[in-house]
Amino acid sequence: MIKGVVVAGRRDLTTYAYRKARARFLAESDVCHLCGHPGADVIDHVHPVSRGADPKDTSNWLPAHGVNRCPTCGRNCNGEKGASQRTTGLKTSRDWYM
Description:
98 residues; 8% strand; alpha+beta
């Protein structure tokens, strides 16, 4: 994200209503769906918001460890999941040779 610019489609993730809904969701269950340990502090959108999923669709939410790493295994589960889903290498219009 560029300083001061909100990525299109993610503006809803900063509203007061969204933060309250997220807090209620995590209060009901804080067991991380990735490592199985309690203490999840973020919502993992199973189908990414960046690919058109509705950020307010609670059926697309699962608890995960993120900002505060897992107190049991020390992982940033949601961050690791995101890193593993990124594409390797850039897709360009031509092959570049050194």
